[in-house]
Amino acid sequence: MKQFKPGILIVLIAILGVILASCKNEIDLDRKYLKRTLALNGYINVDSAENVLSVSWTDELQPILINDATMKITVNGQLRQTLTGSNDISKVYRINTPFAPGDRVRIDVVTADGSGHAYVEETVPLPIEKIDELKVEEVKQVSYYDNRGEKAKSDMYKISVRFRDNPQTDFYRLTTTIFQTRRNSSLNTLEYFKPISFQGFIATGDPVMMEGKPITQSSDEAMNAANGGSVVNRYAVFNDLMMGGRDCNISFYISPNEFIPEFRIDLYNLSADLRVTVCSFSEAAYYYLKSLNLRESEYYDDYKDLTGPIKLPSNVRGGTGIVGFYTSRSLPVKVFGSDRYPGLYN
Q1: pLDDT for position 66
Q2: I want to staple 116 with a disulfide (CB 3.0 to 4.6 A). Which of 38, 106, 192, 203 is the partner?
């Protein structure tokens, strides 16, 4: 189990807001072995009208956010937007430049005093055409290995997804969003709860999600593999090596409890929907989240591992950090109940 020492904590920089495709806009910056360096962090969702990036100096205890830098966004060799400082209360930089799949994007950042200049240059990945099929079924007493690699057994919803691999896309991420609706029978009204971005689904037995290494052995073997040799795919990223331009079939499980509000309302009047999103990810963002899977695994301890600590990937030149790009396709499906969440099936 990992142990974090005081003074060298790895800080999580959360970029505000939830991306429309439900891919979490969150970057973890490892600064333990960095000198003072300009850092750029965030995810660019091509399907969103606005995206946010953070700019900071690395520091021993916490990042020092910079709100007076100049940011220039160039698309296919043409300057599209210039931001001079950030007026946002959270000190993030809000980008409203439209991007399209296949665009070559460069983002340059220069500090006000000219002491720091960093940039990232990436090609926007191409999305899949669509999700062809999405099914939900109740399965009683499923035996599985949870996201800690421990054996468990319970009633579950099995989610099956089918889509065709884009031959020009190598890296993907799968995300889910839960929608809940409650009917007030006495007033004949409907209450819609805030959508929940949910990444805790169980996919340890799926060969695509586990990139060819599903945890499906006998109990003793699986426990040894999970705790000493297999890394659970917490961030649900995967490559196309098992697809090769053909149909991709993925199955995963979600506990029925995840669809019920915390205060346990009258379940007879509750309905639930699920939206599944397949994101086409840029290479750097894929390897970044893949490294987080390893670093956050139950058995990894970067202060005792003989191979040394994990170096988180960076695609920022002249600095550090990750600026990931992704496109996505989504599809909703009914889980249970008679009422559907508004606008979800339009």
Answers
A1: 94
A2: 38
User: Can you read off the two tokens belonging to residue 121?
Assistant: 């240059």
Residue 63 amino acid letter: P
- Using CA atoms, how far apart are residues 128 and 164, in angstroms rounded to an integer? 7
CB 187, CB 205: distance < 8 Å: no
Closest CA to 256 of 178, 341, 174: 178
Enter the pTM of the model: 0.81
Rounded to the nearest 5°, which phi and psi values hold at 242?
-95, 5
Environment class of 219 (CB within 10 Å of its CB; exposed 0-12, middle 13-18, buried 19+): exposed
Average pLDDT, the chain: 82
